Amino acid sequence: QVQLVESGGGLVQPGGSLRLSCAVSGSIFSWYAMNWYRQAPGKQRELVAGISRTGGSTNYADSVVGRFTISRDNAKNTVYLQMNSLTPEDTAVYYCNAHRTLSGIADYWGQGTQVTVSS
């Protein structure tokens, strides 16, 4: 069973930084492209950032370009989201997603971690 466990969320002041981590177990990590999504109250879940299986390609939502950086360590089965210059609009529950297209299509989700940006 594939499991994703996020950590690193919390309360931060505007302009501050947080680093989210997502540890994956139960499968071969390098089979999966990894994504971070977020969902704010009353809004739909949106894709924040994604990274390819090897880490050679990344993509970002326009709202986070230049502020957020996604990375992965395939030796540690972990994906990260470095978030800088946070604003109250970044407040949301952040979810890690593992997307596999090898040997069939599959998606797995973490339980989410709350990020609150407030003074």
Describe what you observe in this structure:
- The protein is mostly beta strands and 119 residues long.
- It contains no helices and eleven strands.
- Strand 5 (46-51) and strand 6 form a beta hairpin.
- The model has no long low-confidence stretch (mean pLDDT 96).
Keywords:
119 residues, globular, mainly beta, seven-stranded mixed sheet, four-stranded antiparallel sheet
Summary, kept brief:
The protein is built from no helices and eleven strands. The chain is mainly β and 119 residues long.
Average pLDDT across residues? 96
Query: Low-confidence parts, pLDDT < 50 over ≥5 residues?
Result: none
Largest sheet geometry? 7 strands, mixed
What's the helix count?
Answer: 0
Helix content: under 10%
Structural class: mainly beta
Radius of gyration: 14 Å
Beta percentage is over 45%
Alpha carbon gap, first and last residue: 40 Å
Number of strands: 11
Shape: globular
> Which sequence of SSEs, written as H and E, runs from N to C?
EEEEEEEEEEE
Summarize the helices and strands and which ones pair or pack:
Elements: E1 3-7, E2 10-12, E3 18-25, E4 32-39, E5 46-51, E6 58-60, E7 68-73, E8 78-83, E9 92-100, E10 106-109, E11 113-117
Parallel strand pairs: 2-11
Antiparallel strand pairs: 1-3, 3-8, 4-5, 4-9, 5-6, 7-8, 9-10, 9-11
